[in-house]
Design goal:
By secondary structure, the protein is of the alpha+beta class. The chain folds into two domains: about 120 residues, no CATH class; about 110 residues, no CATH class. About 40% of the residues lie in helices and about 15% in strands. The chain has a three-stranded antiparallel beta sheet. Helix 2 crosses helix 6. This is Phage head morphogenesis protein. InterPro entries: Phage_head_morphogenesis_dom (IPR006528).
Length: about 270
Amino acid sequence: MPQKIDLVYAIGLPPEKAIEYFKSKGYQFSWNWYDIWQEAQAKAFAVAKAMRMDILQDIREMVQKALDEGITFQQFKKELEPRLKAKGWWGYKFVSYPDGRVEKILEGSPWRLKTIYRTNLQTAYMAGRYKAFMENVDNRPYWQYVAVLDSRTRPAHRALHGKIFRYDDPFWDTHYPPLGFNCRCRVRTLSQSDVDKKDLPVDSAVGKIKWEDQLVSKKTGELQPVAVYHDPVTGMKIPTDIGWSYNPGKAAWFPDLDKYPYDVAKQWVQGG
C-alpha cells in the first residue's frame, strides 16, 4: 500500500452494489457541471465540457476500471491522460458562441482527472452503501454523519460531524454524502442499543430544511436552489454545495413511483 492513502484504499474495495450502480448510469452530455441537475447526476454519467461520445466513453471506461479493479489515481491518470491528449481533449481551448462571445475553457487536466476520479468513485460507493444500509434498517435504524476532520474539511461538513438522524429523516434526502466535489464524508449506522448505551442525541430535520438560491455564475448571474439545514442546536445554516442537494443512493435505486399505478406505488412504499 502506498504511503499516501488514495481514495480506493481509504474506502476499501467497492461493494458489488457500488459497481452495479455505476454500470446502471447512462450517458449525458454537459457543458457546465450544474447543467446536470441533482438526481439526474445519479442516473447519468456526465463530465462537464465533454461533448464527444468517444471522450465520454474513455472517461467512463477508466472510472469503471477504477471501481472494478481498485486502481489508484496515479494508474487512472497514467492510462487516461494520453488517450485524452491524443484526441485533443486537453488543456485550455477558446470557444466561440453564436452571439459573438468567446470563452476560454479548460478541458482535460490533472486537476480535472482527479476530481472526476474521486467524485465518481465516492458517489458510487456511497450509493452502494445506501442500498446496503436500507436493507438493514430494522437492526440499525439510526445513521450518523461522519466527516474527515482535517485542514481540508469544509466548515459545513465539519458542523455535521457526529450528528445522528433516523434513516427516514428528510435530512438524508438532501444531505446524504457526498455533499460536493471531493467530499470525503460518509455515514455510520447505529442500532437502538448503540444510541441508548451512550445516550446519543438524535436530531430531526423535519421543518428545518429550506431551499435558498445561490449564485452559480458571476458571468451570467444564474442562480440555483440549494438545500440548507437550519441546525436548532448551534443556530448554523448548513448548505450542500450547489448541485449536490440530493441523495445519490436514493435517486439511483428508488423507482419513479409516478410511473406506476397508485396501488402498486402504495404497496412499494409500505414494503408489501
